[in-house]
Design brief:
It is built from two helices and 16 strands. By secondary structure, it is mainly beta.
Length: about 290
């Protein structure tokens, strides 16, 4: 009888204590999850490896159920290294500025944004690169979808220039398709871009990048240059996510991204304040000769 009583007592104790522990361990929704962290939000890794071939400032999210990324940026000023002219293209350089977004989902990488490009003047394509033009790039996908690169048409309404302010975003609005929008200074470009790896509800990461790309140098060490691409100012940046049945913008604050300065931090001058960082804001300068 005593053994039975002791067994029941222990069982009752375990029932109540275990139930109490379960309640204590339940993750509660923060008071302001949009501006802080969502319940069960995946934290970003502390570091990621650089990919060789360019000078770039990248902030990249964790792999989570994000739907895309966006922000508002003042386009940087450009000073080219006159010793790095492209021998194969008159008037062009071996360094090329870009400001873009992108991601990786389903094993497919994307780069989508603005790159310094040739334009049409009186119906003739310029020899020099003279404006930022929208571009889209994707790698191939296991589904059989092939790699692709394309630009917005060479028209005045799709050219942006250093110092202009643009709002830019990419968002999964349909499964296997990204909506890309860039607008500012009275101009707007919008398109849907097929990407077989991108689907709502899947885990993926998204990025924003300010870069000095280098012609025919992908995967190789960054080439020495005195080119400067400076004062690219993000006033805000954010990640898209579904929350309470609606698509919202979650600020890309410092707790939501991995900080990458490639190939070495010495080439970057990053300026931000505490208030700017809460909104995902910062000013980025890149100098191939270092700071």
């Amino acid at each position: 009888m005593i053994k039975i009583f002791n067994f029941l007592l222990i069982s009752c104790f375990c029932f109540f204590s275990c139930g109490s522990d379960d309640n204590e361990n339940k993750t509660e929704e923060p008071a302001d999850p949009i501006n802080t962290f969502f319940k069960n939000e995946v934290p970003p890794p502390s570091s990621q490896s650089c990919f060789a071939g360019a000078y770039y400032r990248k902030v990249v999210s964790s792999k989570d159920v994000w739907l895309g990324i966006g922000g508002t940026v003042q386009l940087p000023t450009i000073v080219f290294d006159e010793d790095r002219k492209n021998p194969n293209k008159t008037g062009q350089y071996l360094d090329n500025p870009s400001v873009y977004l992108g991601g990786n989902m389903g094993g497919q990488e994307t780069d989508i944004g603005l790159t310094w490009e040739v334009i049409k003047e009186n119906g003739i394509v310029s020899q020099e690169r003279k404006a930022f033009r929208p571009f889209m790039r994707r790698t191939n996908h296991i589904s059989g979808q092939e790699a692709n690169y394309m630009n917005a048409p060479a028209e005045d309404k799709y050219y942006w220039y250093p110092g202009e302010i643009v709002t830019i975003s990419i968002q999964i609005v349909n499964d296997y398709q990204i909506k890309f929008i860039v607008e500012g200074n009275g101009k707007r470009f919008e398109t849907d871009y097929d990407c077989a790896g991108y689907k709502r509800g899947n885990m993926g990461e998204f990025k924003r990048v300010n870069a000095i790309d280098q012609v025919a140098n992908e995967g190789k060490p960054a080439q020495s240059t005195k080119t400067k691409v400076e004062n690219g100012k993000w006033s805000d940046s954010y990640l898209f996510r579904t929350y309470n049945g609606k698509v919202i913008k979650a600020p890309l604050h410092e707790g939501r991204f991995t900080d990458m300065r490639c190939p070495d931090p010495l080439y970057f001058n990053i300026q931000t304040t505490a208030d700017e960082m809460k909104k995902g804001g910062e000013t980025i300068s890149i100098n191939g000769a270092g700071y």
